[in-house]
Amino acid sequence: MISINRCMVLFMVSILVFYSCDLEGGSKNENNITKKNAIHIAEAQWIKTYGYSKRDLKQFQPYKIELKANVWIVEGSFLVDEDYIHGGTPYIEIRVTDGEVLKIEHGE
Asked: CA 79, CA 83: separation in Å to the nearest integer?
């Protein structure tokens, strides 16, 4: 009888742990980079690589951001002035699981 009770308690505890992890964002995904964090990483890398200031980066907003195959793709928008597009935009690919920059470039 004691072993059945122990099994039931262990079973109930494991269910509670599973559901609490799942409902709170899960320990499986707690290290994943969020959309907001991807934007911060992108801006920091663009400042470091291309010498932009935070103010300079405003010209590329709003950013286009999408998640494809566990990679955040963040790209600046073109600056349009009286139907003329100025220069290129910064582009970066960031791995979701650890925030590693996989690709960074700037269009012309």
From this structure: 10
84-96 residue pLDDT tens: 556 689 999 999 9
pLDDT category at 13 given cuts 50, 70, 90 is: very low
Residue 69 has pLDDT above 80, yes or no: yes
Contacts of 74 (CB under 8 A, 6+ apart): 38, 39, 42, 63, 64, 65, 91, 92, 94
**DSSP codes joined into one string, the chain:** -HHHHHHHHHHHHHHHHHHHHHHTTTTTSTTSPPHHHHHHHHHHHHHHHH---HHHHGGGPSPEEEEETTEEEEEPPPEEETTEEES--EEEEEETTT--EEEEEE--
Cα(13)–Cα(64) distance, rounded to whole angstroms? 43
Phi, psi dihedrals of residue 90, rounded to the nearest 5° = -75, 150
